[in-house]
Design goal:
Chain lengths: ~325, ~270
């Protein structure tokens, strides 16, 4: 049963995948996820996250490189891998014409669970995911949030030791997002290894023990969320000036006195913070000395976009092509 | 660990795909496709009401203008044509269903499960076969209500039905290729009709091929739907010359379609990303 004894749940080594039309989705991606941990793949749309998940779940074959799930090679032993994993893909892959219960039973049967086990497990999961009331209704009557929960339940039918969640909370309302996080945390407590992809730094920070940041098919940063955040600074300071001209002067003054460049967006000056409040005071003193007075001030947590700017020098939204 | 209530070796045993499991997986998928068939009003309409409308249209509206020399008159000419048209039109559901499964990501899920690779296509075509059995029974009943009679024997009728179902099964594979090539279910439907219309209407299903212009007769004579219609008509009511020849031609077309489109569909399914 392979070398599952090395404590690694997932091992991806130099994965390369090119799609028709020469689109390079993965350009040598490597990472390792420990057993019983949550591993995050963080990146914008088109970064290659989904391609990596599809290779690890045996849906796609890589052009080059190897990958193992609990010691089973995805290319040489795909059937072995499929028996160990659960997948909740980016778009809820549930059959609209079947009821919630029928969907889960079907997945159980296709996992080769005995019929009675499939039925029992379907009942358990519907209860657990708060779908018991809708269990016997066709899925086409479900809301988006209910579909997502059913999709996740389908991934858990066979209690897989390794679970892949591709952007599990994209499109969910804040309440559903938080309750999904709680479900994931519970699974990890029970010993499941989770690989999740996300576009949200907050989500990676909340859930992932370790993460890699992926951009244009390459890993551009790796570590814990805390490490990544410390590289990014404590947040971003917004200073609203009275005019674009004033803002221009402010950027010049701050750039001269601080080590970090400030940027201007209309009449707003943005400055990334290294040390929090101390930096805010410094910035205000500098502006005051230059005879400039902002009329409003706010700070925000660093976003993934900030991380991208810091790590790649280009904005995340430029990636949408 | 709790996540592994099943031990890893037990999981490996379950993940191994055996021939028996491939059959079970196929039946699980077929069951799901049949449930969908009953629950979606439009597909139910497509496979039941539509053939009945064609029966009524040709029996009572156009039929009077079409003269044929066949035992029992035009209704006996028509119903065998309706049989073939209904199962051929029904194959569109295969292409729409598969395109939808791809579009909605269900195929992704199936590919990540430890099930037989072949089950998605095999299950879909088996579900089609079940639907066609229903369609054949329905049209037999409706046919009898409007005056159709089997003039040969019950044995010949069963033979004709077997030929029809085999041909329809082959056709499902051809339409599976369309479904697996289309970007979405709407396109799959649009792509299907230019294939369906000439095959069913430029055929011997509703009017004698001799009544068509010369340039069309060649196509209408040799194309598969005409051959199957003649074979089914000859076996059920007689009045068709060289029934054996048409039967063999139907079997040859059926085998040919499966041999070409079966592997093509499997290939499309494997390589579609």
């Amino acid at each position: 049963m392979g070398s599952a004894g090395n404590g690694l749940a997932i091992e991806a080594d130099n994965l390369v995948k090119t799609f028709k039309g020469g689109i390079l989705a993965l350009d040598g991606v490597s990472f390792r996820a420990e057993r019983g941990s949550v591993f995050g793949l963080l990146g914008p749309n088109g970064a290659g996250k989904t391609t990596a998940v599809r290779i690890l779940t045996t849906i796609l074959q890589p052009d080059r490189g190897t990958a193992q799930v609990l010691g089973h090679d995805v290319a040489r032993d795909p059937a072995g891998v499929r028996g160990l994993i659960g997948l909740a893909a980016q778009f809820a892959a549930v059959d609209e014409n079947l009821t919630g219960r029928e969907n889960l039973r079907m997945v159980g049967q296709l996992n080769h669970l005995p019929r009675a086990r499939s039925t029992a497990r379907a009942g358990e999961l519907l209860e657990q995911f708060d779908l018991a009331d809708a269990a016997n209704r066709p899925v086409k009557t479900y809301s988006g949030g209910m579909r997502r929960r059913l999709d996740l339940a389908a991934a858990l039918v066979d209690r897989p030791p390794v679970l892949f969640l591709d952007e599990p909370t994209t499109g969910l309302d804040p309440f559903s997002r938080v309750s999904l996080w709680a479900v994931i945390e519970k699974l990890v407590d029970d010993g499941t290894t989770v690989l999740l992809t996300t576009q949200y730094l907050e989500e990676a920070d909340r859930l992932a023990d370790r993460l890699v940041v992926v951009d244009r098919g390459r890993v551009i940063a790796e570590g814990t969320a805390a490490q990544l955040k410390s590289e990014l600074g404590a947040g971003v300071l917004h200073l609203e000036m009275t005019s674009g001209e004033e803002a221009e002067k402010g950027v010049a003054a701050l750039g001269e006195r601080l080590r970090r460049p400030a940027s201007r967006l209309g009449s707003v000056v943005e400055l990334s913070l290294d040390e929090g409040v101390g930096d805010v005071l410094d910035a205000l003193r500098i502006l005051d000395a230059a005879g400039l007075a902002p009329f409003s001030l706010s700070t925000r947590e660093p976003s993934l976009d900030d991380a991208f700017l810091a790590l790649t020098g280009h904005s995340m939204t430029e990636e949408a092509t | 660990m709790t996540a592994g209530t099943a031990t890893l070796s037990e999981r490996e045993r379950r993940a191994a795909v055996t021939p028996l499991r491939a059959v079970v997986d196929t039946l699980v998928i077929a069951e799901r496709d049949l449930i969908a068939l009953v629950r979606i009003p439009s597909t139910l309409f497509f496979s039941s009401v539509q053939p009945i409308m064609f029966v009524l249209l040709f029996r009572y509206v156009f039929g009077g203008a079409i003269s044929v020399a066949i035992p029992g008159g035009y209704v006996n000419y028509l119903i065998p044509g309706i049989f073939v048209q209904a199962v051929v039109f029904g194959a569109v559901q295969t292409s729409i269903g598969l395109a939808e499964d791809l579009q909605k990501g269900l195929v992704e899920r199936f590919r990540s499960l430890p099930m037989a690779r072949s089950a998605v296509l095999a299950g879909r075509t088996v579900a089609d076969l079940c639907r066609n059995v229903f369609v054949v029974l329905l049209i037999t009943g409706v046919g009898y209500a409007v005056g159709f009679r089997v003039e040969t024997s019950f044995g010949y009728y069963l033979g004709a039905v077997a030929l029809l179902l085999a041909f329809a099964y082959a056709f499902s594979w051809a339409f599976a290729v369309i479904g697996l090539s289309a970007p979405n279910s709407e396109t799959a439907q649009v792509m299907s009709f230019p294939v369906l219309f000439p095959l069913t209407f430029a055929s011997s299903a509703f009017v004698p091929v001799q009544s068509m212009p010369g340039w069309l007769q060649g196509f209408a004579t040799y194309q598969p739907v005409s051959q199957v219609v003649w074979a089914v008509r000859g076996l059920m009511v007689g009045g068709v010359s060289d029934v054996a020849g048409h039967t063999w031609a139907s079997i040859a077309w059926t085998a040919g379609i499966v041999l070409v489109f079966g592997p093509l569909a499997v290939h499309r399914y494997r390589t579609r990303t």
